[in-house]
């Protein structure tokens, strides 16, 4: 028995080239499978179906009534298009932040329409601040001042877009509520909490 153990440790300390090659191949395949599975899971969390699993009774009906869902051009912006950066690090940062939102739903903080409405302003302000901080990057992936033909826009829109570009404003400064209902905003400007 002692010889068997001693032989195993000798073999273990001096593995063959075949053993090392096998270990490298298995590790590489395991890494590829892990990364592929991880990306599939990540992409699933970017789908409208995933978002709808929690938001079917609150924001999904609003979104489906908006021009981001159904419009004359047939171009549709999904939840991830507006709420998730495309770049790797910002995307991961936002995914980690979103995990807190999923946790809030699972623990019952916003699991009903009534509870969601009670926290809508707080959640909206957090999202507006995020969009303001990144210059409405997700909006600008599709809508960019440099690519706009103001002569093709209605008079008021052309004037407002030209002024916003000149003043360095970002999309969210004017377009709050474009895909979702606005929260109750009374007394927000004065710094007071909204009335319920």
UniProtKB/TrEMBL annotation:
Heme 4 binds at residues 139, 171, 174-175. Binds 4 heme groups per subunit. Binds 4 heme groups per subunit. Heme 2 binds at residues 79, 83, 180. It is found in: Cell membrane. InterPro entries: Cytochrome_c-type_ET (IPR051174), Multihaem_cyt_sf (IPR036280), NapC/NirT/NrfH (IPR024717), NapC/NirT_cyt_c_N (IPR005126), NapC/NirT_cytc_sf (IPR038266), NO3Rdtase_cyt_c_NapC/NirT (IPR011885). Keywords: Cell membrane, Electron transport, Heme, Iron, Membrane, Metal-binding, Transmembrane, Transmembrane helix, Transport. It is a single-pass membrane protein. The keyword tRNA processing does not apply. This is Cytochrome c-type protein. It comes from Frederiksenia canicola.
């Amino acid at each position: 028995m002692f010889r068997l153990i001693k032989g195993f440790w000798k073999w273990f300390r001096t593995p063959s080239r075949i053993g090392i090659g096998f270990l490298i191949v298995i590790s590489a395949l395991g890494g590829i499978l892990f990364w592929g599975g991880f990306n599939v899971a990540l992409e699933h969390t970017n789908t409208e179906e995933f978002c709808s699993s929690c938001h079917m009774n609150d924001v999904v009906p609003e979104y489906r009534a908006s021009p981001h869902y159904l419009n004359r051009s047939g171009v549709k912006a999904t939840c991830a298009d507006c709420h998730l950066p495309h770049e790797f690090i910002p995307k991961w940062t936002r995914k980690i932040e979103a995990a807190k939102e999923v946790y809030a739903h699972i623990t019952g903080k916003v699991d009903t329409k009534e509870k969601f409405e009670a926290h809508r302003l707080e959640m909206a302000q957090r999202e507006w601040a995020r969009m303001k901080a990144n210059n409405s990057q997700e909006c600008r992936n599709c809508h960019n001042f440099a690519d706009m033909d103001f002569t093709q826009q209605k008079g008021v829109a052309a004037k407002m877009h030209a002024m916003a570009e000149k003043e360095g404003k970002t999309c969210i400064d004017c377009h709050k509520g474009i895909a979702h209902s606005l929260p109750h905003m009374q007394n927000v400007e004065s710094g007071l909490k909204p009335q319920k």
